[in-house]
Amino acid sequence: MTNRLTKPLAGWRVLVPRGGPWGDQVAANLRAKGAHPIVAPMINFAATDDAPALDAALTRLAAGDFDWMTITSATTVDVLSSHRAVVAPGTRIAAVGETTAAALVAAGYHVDIVPSEDNSARGLLEEWEAATAGAIPLRVLTLRSEIAKPLLSEGLRRVGHDVESVVAYRTIGVPVSDQVVTDVKAGLVHAVLVTSGSVARQVREQFGDIPERTLVACIGPQTAKDSRALGLRVDVIAEERSAESLIDAIVEAALAGATPAR
């Protein structure tokens, strides 16, 4: 008989909406809890419309031309990996959120700052001065998606930093297999991880209303807010905006009495 304390998610089928190193790590962590992960990437990146600008920025990054680089999503890490980007030893990296930080580490990069309270561009701006000892101006490379608001770049420029903002990718939805759609709609997937607003949009568009018996778990308050705005039900929210905390939230629900759909 499986021990509920060591394998609290035994029998649970959990949808992991991202692939790559992050998805692999989350899948491994879920298996350690007894779950059966279904890795079904729902978003991917398409090449930026200004590839020369990105290539030039990454060449300068390898050469040590920047004091800092800011990364605002795990997808940006995928772009760095696909370009085999090299970060010069003297360049520090700021990650907006634990998911992004975990993706950086999984891909072999280092992380120097993650906002301790508000895991967002605004949160990073609030903690930037203390984290950088008030040094101005710093040379900062900000990599972002085509749809991201330039809040971070504008905020850093406003306080006097030399910022180069470069579009690293375009976010596109990825259709999951017909079998995954069928299983989710039939309530045969016991939990769905929602790791960003972009993922929430794809979950809503591809699956419609999630069955009540399926747990919808969001990685943080902002993702939960985005999910609800799209009409997606939210059942649990991770306390620490990290993949580990997200899994812990599902474990807590399981131990509290939630059971896999039959």
Average pLDDT figure: 91
Number of self-contained structural domains: 2
Strand order of the largest sheet: 2-1-8-9-10
Instruction: Report the radius of gyration as a whole number of Å.
Output: 19 Å
CATH architecture of the largest domain: 3-Layer(aba) Sandwich
Task: Give the structural class.
Answer: alpha/beta
CATH class bucket of the largest domain: Alpha Beta
Which topology of the largest domain does CATH recognise?
Answer: Rossmann fold
Q: In total, how many beta strands?
A: 10
Using the alpha-carbon principal axes, give the shape.
elongated
> Roughly what percent helix?
25-40%
Order of helices and strands: EHEEHEHEHHEHEHEHEHEH
- How far is it from the N-terminal to the C-terminal residue, by CA? 18 Å
Strand content: 15-25%
Count of helical stretches: 10
Largest sheet: 5 strands, parallel
Low-pLDDT runs: none
Entry summary:
Catalyzes cyclization of the linear tetrapyrrole, hydroxymethylbilane, to the macrocyclic uroporphyrinogen III. By secondary structure, the protein is an alpha/beta fold.
SSE layout and pairings?
Layout: E1 13-16, H1 20-32, E2 36-39, E3 43-47, H2 51-63, E4 68-71, H3 74-82, E5 92-95, H4 98-106, H5 121-131, E6 139-145, H6 151-158, E7 162-173, H7 178-185, E8 191-194, H8 197-207, E9 215-218, H9 221-229, E10 236-237, H10 243-255
Parallel strand pairs: 1-2, 1-8, 4-5, 4-6, 6-7, 8-9, 9-10
Antiparallel strand pairs: 3-7
